[in-house]
């Protein structure tokens, strides 16, 4: 970080196909002055999320990311100076800091964070990833002991926590991930009962072997063909927690949806529910208490993938979309 300068990464062009380094540019600006009601924050860690790519397509649960603006993204930051009550220099906050060294943001858009060691856990297990896994599996998926849970993007930040919570709650857990190594890691290190390598092909047949009693809860991070393969193997009254659709984010989304909608939903009396983790923020402390107790007892392993240097943020996102990461990927600024 250079003194007195705010390094920023701009999205210079919205990708029509796959995201590449040419879509970003690093630039320098003056460090902003906070206005009344704002705090100036220094960004410590930037969260890399599959959703960063989805925001480039258009407005979702947030405004679209536009070309020639600082790339949006969540981050953990430290307050440098404040013109807002309730925030003081040294406080740690979470907010949409963007990919840059400094940001001046309205205090109402910042959440004050507790002092936790390591700080990186505030972006992984105690951040959006952990809360999404917790509420998505238990509140939306309503997973119960003895049931079979299947989760896709299982070695990623959300998926790796979903599978472990499923095991803690007494479910049989099957993860779907790309590659032998990731699948081996899920079963050997994270305690998944079985793992399916979707890059090997024929997910339907592999799932049949891995989940012989059918699927009660499918935690869907990917959509597309994997959703179709799971739909066909759902048990009656099963639940599909629609968390994301990463197979559709990077490139031109496929026109056709999964076959079996709505026929299989009707016949099997399925519940398919989308959710956004922000809807559960009022109940956040309840989840954090449970997540903390599992982490401290060693029941829940936290996997983080920390990349050094703001300049490497575009490469880190492109790599995440290609499946480079295990667990929560973030950039240390
Ligand atoms: N609803 C909410 O509130 C909420 C909140 C947070 C995240 N999410 C969603 O949760 C999902 C996971 O996001 P994340 O940011 O935590 O990312 P992540 O799981 O850490 O990383 C993404 C992983 O997805 C896998 N992947 C990439 N392309 C794929 C494809 N075409 N088919 C199958 N798998 C593919 C890759 O692993 P492989 O090696 O296995 O391919 C990659 O490592 C995303 O859909 C995201 O939008 C939703």
Q: Gist?
A:
This protein has 333 residues and is of the alpha/beta class. It contains nine helices and 16 strands.
Plain-language structure description:
The chain has 333 residues and is an alpha/beta fold. The chain has nine helices and 16 strands. The strands form three sheets. Strands 3, 5, 6, 7, 8, 15 and 16 form a seven-stranded mixed sheet that branches. A six-stranded parallel sheet has the order 11-10-9-12-13-14, sandwiched between helices. It has a three-stranded antiparallel sheet with strand order 2-1-4, with no helix packed on it. Helix 2 packs across helix 3. It starts with a strand and ends with a strand. It binds NADP nicotinamide-adenine-dinucleotide phosphate (NAP). The site of NADP nicotinamide-adenine-dinucleotide phosphate has 31 residues, from helix 1, helix 2, helix 3 and helix 9.
Residues in helices, as a percent range? 10-25%
Mean pLDDT: 96
How many angstroms does the end-to-end distance come to?
8 Å
Overall form: globular
- Measured on Cα atoms, how large is the radius of gyration? 20 Å
Write the element-wise H/E pattern from the N-terminal end onward: EEEHEEEEEHEHEHEHEHEHEHEHE
What structural class is derived from the secondary structure elements?
alpha/beta
How many E strands? 16
Report strand %.
Answer: 25-35%
Count of helical stretches = 9
Could you list the spans in which at least 5 consecutive residues all have pLDDT below 50?
none
Bound compounds: NADP nicotinamide-adenine-dinucleotide phosphate
Describe the main β-sheet briefly. 7 strands, mixed
